[in-house]
Amino acid sequence: MISPQPLFQVRAELADILHLGATPYGERRVINILGGTVEGPRLRGTILPGGAVGADDLPVGAADI
Q: 11: closest CA among 39, 43, 37?
């Protein structure tokens, strides 16, 4: 029988949330990525700083990433 196994674990260090203000789609937020690691049985790596994740808080209670 096949059983699911985790492939890797991501540990990311994130900056504080930057609130950019309202847009026609909702409140815009950005979170900068400061670094981190990716580790698994057959995979290992480093997350470099400089990336970011943006999201809009939608009026229906969801977020658009």
A: 37
- Phi and psi at 48, nearest 5°, equal -85, 150
CB-CB contact of 48 with 37 (8 Å): no
The tens digit of pLDDT for each residue in 2-42 reads 999 999 999 999 999 999 999 888 899 999 999 999 999 99
Are the beta carbons of 39 and 6 closer than 8 angstroms? no
Domain presence at residue 43: yes
Is 65 within a domain? no
Is 63 part of any domain? no
